[in-house]
């Protein structure tokens, strides 16, 4: 006996809705994002593997979100599957959260000075930043990370995930040096600090998400003076 048509439609609808609740992406082509960095931070005495992402902007500097700061931080570069690859591992020598960062996630951007210089390979390479602070951020962008892939499942992805996002006009991001995307799909817990990449350039830093599924990114062009001064000094 076949499945009644109305039950079949219900089952198909449930499957589509359930699939739509996945945070988004698909597995990235291995090592196609050589700038991606996995952060393991210690808040007390324990490292929390994969607690944040970051991205390499110079051989000795990683950019991430200020709320990813910890008592100590270790970074992994050049990995795709974090359970199977070691990559280049090193400690952070000094963290530079933005001086105006606050608990409401304003100015949620940070630079990490590495203890060692990263060795550039086809798996480890920095990403470019905007050249001027008056650049407009393109609307069609990409986010990547090892964060959660399914709602209500408190576990990150072992392999790097990619997701295309479209930035939109949102009152939440009309000021405060932020841009936004919205919808069911977007960066999840564990993706914080990763880059918002548009046309191959890092224009934003993944910051936080609101309850109505608005995803907030720090607008990198607004911070160029601070970025350049911090890395130079």
UniProtKB/TrEMBL annotation:
GO MF term set: serine-type endopeptidase activity
EC identifiers of the protein: 3.4.21.4
Keyword Disulfide bond found: yes
Keyword Lipid metabolism among UniProt keywords: no
Pfam family of the protein (one): Trypsin
InterPro entries documented for this protein: Peptidase_S1_PA, Peptidase_S1_PA_chymotrypsin, Peptidase_S1A, Trypsin_dom, TRYPSIN_HIS, TRYPSIN_SER
Database matches in SMART domains: Tryp_SPc
SUPFAM superfamilies, per the entry: Trypsin-like serine proteases
Coiled coil: none
Peptidase S1 domain segment(s): 22-232
Keywords: Disulfide bond, Hydrolase, Protease, Serine protease, Signal, Zymogen
Alphabetized PANTHER family for the sequence: GRANZYME B, KALLIKREIN-RELATED
Protein's name in the database: trypsin
Source organism: Salmo trutta (Brown trout)
High-level lineage: Eukaryota, Metazoa, Chordata, Craniata, Vertebrata
């Amino acid at each position: 006996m076949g499945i009644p048509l109305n039950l079949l439609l219900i089952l198909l609808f449930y499957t589509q809705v359930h699939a739509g609740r996945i945070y988004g992406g698909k597995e990235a082509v291995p090592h196609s994002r050589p700038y991606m960095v996995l952060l393991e931070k210690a808040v007390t005495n324990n490292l929390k593997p994969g607690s944040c992402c970051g991205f390499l902007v110079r051989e000795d500097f990683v950019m991430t979100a200020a709320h990813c700061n910890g008592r100590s931080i270790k970074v992994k570069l050049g990995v795709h599957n974090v359970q199977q690859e070691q990559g280049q591992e090193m400690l952070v020598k000094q963290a530079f959260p933005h001086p105006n960062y606050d608990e409401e996630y304003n100015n949620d951007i940070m630079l990490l000075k590495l203890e060692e210089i990263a060795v550039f390979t086809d798996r480890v390479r920095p990403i470019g930043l905007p050249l001027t602070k008056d650049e407009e951020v393109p609307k069609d962008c990409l986010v990547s990370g090892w964060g959660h892939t399914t709602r209500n499942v408190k576990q990150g992805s072992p392999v790097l995930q990619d997701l295309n996002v479209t930035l939109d006009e949102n009152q939440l991001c009309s000021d405060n040096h932020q841009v936004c995307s919205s919808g069911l799909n977007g960066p999840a817990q564990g993706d914080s600090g990763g880059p918002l990449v548009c046309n191959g350039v890092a224009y934003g830093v993944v910051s936080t998400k609101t309850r109505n599924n608005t995803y907030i990114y720090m607008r990198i062009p607004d911070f160029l003076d601070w970025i350049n001064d911090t890395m130079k000094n």
